[in-house]
Amino acid sequence: MDDIGSDVEEIVAAIRGATHRVTVAKRTLAEVLVRATGHQTADEITHEVQKLQPDVSPSTVYRILEEFEELGIVVHTHLDQHAAVYHIARTVHGHLTCEQCGAMFEIPASHFDVLARDLRESFGFALNRHHVAITGTCADCRSLQP
Ligand SMILES: [Zn+2]
Ligand SMILES: [Zn+2]
Ligand SMILES: [Zn+2]
Fold it and tell me: What is the pTM of this model?
């Protein structure tokens, strides 16, 4: 079995482990998520799923994404004002987006360690490192500014 196959089987095992039903649609969605190289909106995921299984409806995809989130299989993040994007939970990282050019940078979640500790100690608050992107101005755009 290739890496993609074994990653899909791992997801299927997690679904079964939670005593949820494993359907063709869920298996297909798992495969699309494992194959994805970047961040995909629910619409993009639906498009990929339908290439493999044309009968799966967008509402089914949305429902499965919700279920996968509850099971900790995927996470979503908001890169800008647009739709949420999804990826497999084990590739969690922080996101920086540039307000000038729209570029997105993935950064190791460890960059938030100090902030996370401070927020926990000061406010008893648990930081979610990946849910919302940090916005600002990237190095390239800053170098263009006077
Ligand atoms: Zn959200
Ligand atoms: Zn990401
Ligand atoms: Zn920029």
Answer: 0.82
